[in-house]
Amino acid sequence: MSSVEKMLIAEITGDEPMLDLALGLISDSGCFHMENAPVKQNMASRSAKGDNPYIRQMKMLSEIAALSGVKYGKTEVKESAAQTSRWVTENNASEEIEKIHAEISAMADAVQSSEGEMAIHEAALEQISHLKGNADQSFDVDFAEVFACKNLKVRYGRFPLDSYERLSYYEDKDICFLTFGEDEGYKYCFVFAPVEEGDMLDEILAGLYFERIHIPEFVSGNIVESAGQLEKDIASDRENTEKLRTKLARYAEDKKDFLSQCYTRLKTMYDLYELRQNALLDSGSFYIMGFIPESNKNSFADPFTKAGLAVEIREMTKKEEEDAPVKLKTSRFAEPFSMFVNLYGVPSHTDVNPTTIVALTYTLLFGIMFGDLGQGFVLMLLGFFLHHKNGKPLGRIMERLGVSSMIFGTLYGSVFGVEDALDPVYERLGISFLPFKTIENINTVLYAAIGIGVVLIIISIIVNMIQGIRERDWARALFTNNGLAGLVFYVSLLLMLIGPMAGIKAGGAVYVICLIVLPLLVMFMHEPLGELLSGNGFKIHGSLGDFIATNFFECFEYLLGYATNTLSFVRVGGFVLSHAGMMSVVLALAQMAGKGSVIVMILGNIFVMGLEGLLSGIQVLRLEFYEMFSRYYTGGGKSFEPVRIDLDEMIE
Amino acid sequence: MAKLHAIVGAKLRDSDYHQLMSCSNVADAADYLKRRTYYSRVLENTDTDKIHRGILENLLRRGFYEDCYRITNFEKLGDDEVYNHIVLKTEVDEILICITHINAGTDDQISTIPIYMNRYTCFDLMELAKVRSFSELLKLLAKTPYAALLKKYSPKAGEKINYQACELALRSYFYERLLGSRTAAGDKDIQAYICAQIDMINIINAYRLKKYYYADYEQIKSLMIPIYRRIPERAFDQLYSAVDSEDFIRILRSTFYGRKLDEAELMKSPERALQKERYRSAKRSFALAKSPPAAYLTYVYLAETELKNIIRIIEGIRYSLPVEEIASLLIL
Q1: pLDDT by residue (tens digit) across B302-323?
Q2: Which of A128, A133, A524, B307 could form a disulfide with A180 if both were Cys (CB 3.0 to 4.6 A apart)?
Q3: Is the ipTM, as predicted for this complex, more than 0.90?
């Protein structure tokens, strides 16, 4: 069983001017989980954190990246904090960044202004485009002339269609409506009225929810002329914008190397300065405290000592142990499965690390449910590709699941859903009991699934007992439903119910009283019994009535839990059968397709792999979390996160 | 029936009302209705970003009529009063709105009139919006049954039209036509529903008259729809004779409807409690409806109430009312 790595406390002290050097060494070590340094008694301590002096430059670099679209190269710089600081000064980095920022801002403003011009022209074109109407009715009058009319009130805008239907109401008024295009529930139109009726016109239009559109003064000529002019303006704006953009991009590209170097160094200095918030200053000295894994004990102190800093590495106190971060120690095979464990919760220092159990059971159950030599191979290839493309744990998990699926696929004799593909191979090898035809052995598959469930539940209870013993929590180890009492009860009950099928005779009054009733009573009394073993006497919390009622229902829940958790594993068998069933449908469709059978087989396999692969993955995770973790794992820890410079994080 | 249940099933839920009330402006509320509710159909071609409150209300109202049309297809169902009652109700409502405008001397009925119903109504709605006097109204309605009903309420020169009397005449006519229709006459459920609704309308109106106008028995009695169902006429007479609004509520508590009212709501706002009970009773009737016409009749009331709720919310948002205040105005 994998475990968690032992942690030690490392305390670093030195003269205040050497704080930045110390923080740089901490970042270089890659194994220091920094904590807030505790204020010691009788110390006039203060936090070392002030306003970060690099924030202005970092913000400017972020703005430059956002405005120009340039992506900084993020190569880590291997130099000391002092060297970094010197580089920044020698290269006038701050002034240069400011200069580049000003240049790029001006260029970006020019781009924005040109885009704004284009937007105005596009909006004007969009507004007048509704006036094109159709061949019979288009607005063939100069806009300037229309709006210059002295005796006419002219309004251009749009009505909701609902209001448009009401226009005939105003037939007897001196109002003329000239309607044109229709768009998004609105009708566009020109409205004319004698100038003396202007107030009446606006009142009527308001009642009809008329939305006035102002045609810009630069639009002149009739609709065809003005639309043509606007199109030309837009094309010119677009060209101009493109030129300005190219100029900006070229300038940013020219400066990219220098900016990247600045970014890497300044981000390092920024992050290191941020670490100061965890350091304490006292009478010209600094004090830093954190956790390191025991395996780094020997190598960690050297660089600090050489630089003249004092490092003390010691065992954790009981209190520190509770707050210690957790670094999981797992095998290469199990390591990617820590993703699932962390999803549930990081194990605490006292917890059993369940990663190996999860890795083994997950791989096994998935392989059983998704057993197919061909599909498993594809899954493995897909995992391999993902693993090497982005290095995420999911790809590595898929590699393992693919292999498991291939193994069980070989046992089932299934290749891309063809259930008899391996029959000749087994015949030639003279193995008569293989392949195991799942669809012909439905009962066996379902019983086996429940059998696997029983074994996994028993393992979970045993792990919980070990955990209880390690923590000296006797009630947990001995008296609960996931302790010794629960184990005796569960196994005895199973033997009594299923034993006769296997020729095991279990039963009788003594058997029932000692191995079923007594453990049940112990589970009922687990609280006071636990208190008794802890030396606190036989103590019941709350009233006797509450105690009986609560524990009665809890025991009832335990009984239900044993039954439902065991039966829950039937799904493993269910998926074995559904896989075979779905693939038989694909085969039948392929046979019907005649010449297109290959395509049907490929599409069918993709569909089954996508659907069932996903479902199997989710269902196994559910079994892990609900049927197993709920019995032995709490996961209230905090993960080990060594100090590092995060070059991907931009400072906005 | 199944179609109606499907439509009602898609109506707004409490969570939708809550989300709508939480919107900070009308555009957000319109956007929520468009993206997350049954009203997406009505608003699909509408740019909700800058929508005017009035346009939104008109669109929603139109959507309500279109739904009714889709369900019944007025033209095909011809003269069946139950399926056609929405047309009859529109006619009555618009005539009453017109009377209100004549009395107030205003002329903007055109902005809210459901012009899309013009092809179904027995008079021209566009012409109704142009009416400026009672005589013009009678002239427009000359060839309809409404002229005979309203003629006797012609005001003397310089006097206002007796709105209450006109309303009573028109509403009574509406319910008599509905109850007298072939479908309703042969369906006890429909009759029970319509009469229960009339009972509730009478109680609400009587309470208003007692509370705000200190009306006496005679005044109230003369303005009530003379159709009785769950509460006998003498019990109504007792209510009308109440000394004041508090006495009215005390007597109401002992009646069939009074016993169903939510006591907390009754203490807070008796009128709202009565309206909510009317809504609940329609919901019950819809759930228990055995025939399509009965289900349709109750559906129309439920849909109309929902529409009014949405309009209250939109107005509440427009006038920046607190969420609690808007919530207190809703009939749920």
Answers
A1: 999 999 999 999 999 888 888 8
A2: A133
A3: no
